[in-house]
């Protein structure tokens, strides 16, 4: 399905007068702009589908797309050449914000009330609640406390900060309300249940029922992210909320397969793949040691999907392309100059004798429309399966953790088109074909057999979740490492680029917030971090 994203975003700003920013104070108001005799009446309907198109396209962040900054942070790949791929440094500064999505969600809900169609009113109101929760959590998990309850009020340009706990509490309420509204539609109008809810505004092309499943599956992600606070927050009822969703599929439907994924589909005309055919890209990035150490040690066939065999292994050492020993990841710890020299054992980057595996050119670089790759998943079924397995392992709910663990693995394999006995074409770093390998999922599954509801079993769940999140779902893989320590990320080396070469745990607050909401900002960092907006500090979520 090809979906066009409206690129002229200024159109929305003519129709909808908003100061889109963290605190609504980054715009300078000019009242003369509001007296245009050709402007639309305040009572005129602005199609919610138009606003939804803006919101959903706004969820696609440039730095979270495949093989962009988020996935260096997630240690899925490593840059050895800064000109094309930047550095591997974790020396973060100020976060972006997500309040454009929050503000347009408010406007969408306002406009939906003018429609006179209960199903549509409930649909857009439900999505408004979901996006407000999504955008609030997106920012809070990056910085900590943020404005939420007072955000979006144009008469208050210095909104107070809500504690991170209250941000999550309020967001969980919004998500419950969103589920209930969509459930009302699906129960009252069963003929709409499997109909695409908004074919013009929703770039994901989801049905009413799929949106309900996405929202509940996302809620499970949010609840799992609170695992460190389950025992000291009875008012959040984290375990109880998780169990309620899992045990009541009629009221809280969740994803059932990859077909329910919230995915961004690429196409040549409007949404080209972020990277494209270019010789310069063929040696500038290596697959990360963190991901390849996991997949090669378990004979995971996804190794062949993600990476090329290292030239030094198959061309020089003579290893077969089917040997997992031929796939070698580059460490984020390593200085970029050393990585660059390592692109060729002889020091010549054009001779194709690299010491490390490269990104799979055939899959990810050979077509601008991404037709040889896969869609970008924002919220997916495999991750949901692992979240459920984790919760059961932790004792939050009854069920079979092993079953959900295997569902997650098999769904990820299916996503990449891998089945036992199948054939997969392996390429070199320039896109040439080296030959075919036979996929063996049986050996892989035997090596990752679930160790039971133990610490080792939990480690397996978290590790396989990490593999399934390869270059999708933004920073989710990093957030899971930050929360649990699994899998072990590379740190301690000069490539990390922080003062102590250790990984950070947060971003600094957006610069606009520091400048325009200074008093509330200062109070927030004093309360949370002892007065220092420091990227090494632990937020409430992680304590």
Name some characteristics of this structure.
mainly alpha, 543 residues, two-stranded antiparallel ribbon, single chain
Outline the structure in words.
With 543 residues, the chain is mainly alpha-helical. 41% of the residues lie in helices and 4% in strands. The protein is built from 21 helices and six strands. Strands 1-3 form a two-stranded antiparallel sheet. A two-stranded antiparallel ribbon has the order 2-4. Mean pLDDT is 89; it is low at 1-38 and 346-351.
> What number is the mean pLDDT?
89
Principal-axis shape equals globular
Terminus-to-terminus distance: 43 Å
Q: Tell me the fraction of residues in β-strands, as a range.
A: under 5%
> Would you report the number of β strands?
6
Radius of gyration: 24 Å
List the secondary-structure elements in sequence, H or E. HHHEHHHHHHEEHHHHHEHHEEHHHHH
Helix residue percentage: 40-55%
Count of DSSP H/I helices: 21
Q: Structural class of the helix and strand makeup?
A: mainly alpha
Query: In terms of per-residue confidence, which ranges show pLDDT below 50 for 5 or more consecutive residues?
Result: 1-38, 346-351
> Biggest β-sheet, characterized?
2 strands, antiparallel
Strand order, main sheet: write it out: 1-3
């Amino acid at each position: 399905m090809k979906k066009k994203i409206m690129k002229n975003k200024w159109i929305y700003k003519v129709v909808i007068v908003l100061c889109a920013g963290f605190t609504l104070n980054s715009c300078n108001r000019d009242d003369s702009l509001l007296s245009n005799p050709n402007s639309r009446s305040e009572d005129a309907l602005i199609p919610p589908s138009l606003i939804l198109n803006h919101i959903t396209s706004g969820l696609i962040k440039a730095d979270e797309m495949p093989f962009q900054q988020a996935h260096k942070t997630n240690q899925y790949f490593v840059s050895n050449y800064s000109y094309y791929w930047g550095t591997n440094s974790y020396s973060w500064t100020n976060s972006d914000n997500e309040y454009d999505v929050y503000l347009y969600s408010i406007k969408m809900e306002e406009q939906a009330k003018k429609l006179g169609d209960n199903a549509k009113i409930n649909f857009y109101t439900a999505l408004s609640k979901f996006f407000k929760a999504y955008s609030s959590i997106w920012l809070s998990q990056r910085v900590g406390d943020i404005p939420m309850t007072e955000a979006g009020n144009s008469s208050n340009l210095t909104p107070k900060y809500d504690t991170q706990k209250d941000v999550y509490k309020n967001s969980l309420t919004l998500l419950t309300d969103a589920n209930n509204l969509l459930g009302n539609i699906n129960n009252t109008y069963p003929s709409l249940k499997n109909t695409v809810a908004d074919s013009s505004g929703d770039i994901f092309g989801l049905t009413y029922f799929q949106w309900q499943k996405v929202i509940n599956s996302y809620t499970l992600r949010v609840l799992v992210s609170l695992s460190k606070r389950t025992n000291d927050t009875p008012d959040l009822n984290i375990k109880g909320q998780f169990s309620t969703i899992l045990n009541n599929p009629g009221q809280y439907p969740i994803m059932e397969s990859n077909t329910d994924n919230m995915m961004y589909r690429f196409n040549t005309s409007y949404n080209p793949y972020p990277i494209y055919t270019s010789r310069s890209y063929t040696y500038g990035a290596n697959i990360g040691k963190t991901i390849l150490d996991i997949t090669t040690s378990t004979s995971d066939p996804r190794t062949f999907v993600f990476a090329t065999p290292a030239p030094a292994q198959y061309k020089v050492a003579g290893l077969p392309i089917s040997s997992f020993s031929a796939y070698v990841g580059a460490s984020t710890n390593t200085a970029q100059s050393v990585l660059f020299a390592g692109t060729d054992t002889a020091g010549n980057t054009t001779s194709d004798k690299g010491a490390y595996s490269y990104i799979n050119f055939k899959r990810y670089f050979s077509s601008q429309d991404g037709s040889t790759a896969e869609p970008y998943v924002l919220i997916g079924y495999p991750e949901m399966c692992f979240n459920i397995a984790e919760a059961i392992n932790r004792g939050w709910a009854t069920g079979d953790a092993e079953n959900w663990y295997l569902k997650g693995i098999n769904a990820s394999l299916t996503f990449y088109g891998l089945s036992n006995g199948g054939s997969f074409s392996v390429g070199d770093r320039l896109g040439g074909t080296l030959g075919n390998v036979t996929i063996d999922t049986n050996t892989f599954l035997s090596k990752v057999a679930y160790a039971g509801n133990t610490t080792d079993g939990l480690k397996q769940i978290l590790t396989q979740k990490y593999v399934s999140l390869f270059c999708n779902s933004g920073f989710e893989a990093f957030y899971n490492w930050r929360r649990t320590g699994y899998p072990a990320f590379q740190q301690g080396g000069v490539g990390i680029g922080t003062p102590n070469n250790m990984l950070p745990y947060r971003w600094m607050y957006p610069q606009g917030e520091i400048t325009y909401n200074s008093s509330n900002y200062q109070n927030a960092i004093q309360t949370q971090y002892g007065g220092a907006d420091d990227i090494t500090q632990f937020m409430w979520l992680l304590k």
